[in-house]
Design brief:
5 helices; 74% helix; single chain; mainly alpha
Length: 85
């Protein structure tokens, strides 16, 4: 499991919870299987660009906003990792 996948999944889950929607509802909006959304959220799947764009739309984000959240969380985790050394 790649750390990038875990971080991306965390962002998807956090945003979904902010919007107070279920995995099933997100899956329907993004035209995906609920189990696939679950796998993404747990960092077990590496979605294609088309899936990422569908998720961004379903989560009421522009693609650049989703990638910004990814960069922001990646930076925070990297910074915390260096501080704990």
């Amino acid at each position: 499991m790649e750390i990038e996948q875990v971080i991306f999944g965390e962002i998807i889950r956090n945003r979904r919870l902010e919007l107070n929607i279920s995995q099933e509802n997100l899956a329907l909006k993004a035209d995906m299987d609920r189990s696939y959304v679950s796998e993404i959220e747990r960092g077990h799947k590496n979605p294609s660009l088309s899936k990422i764009l569908a998720l961004a739309t379903a989560l009421q984000l522009k693609p650049h906003e989703l990638f910004y959240l990814f960069e922001e969380l990646s930076y925070k985790k990297q910074k915390n990792n260096h501080q704990s050394m």
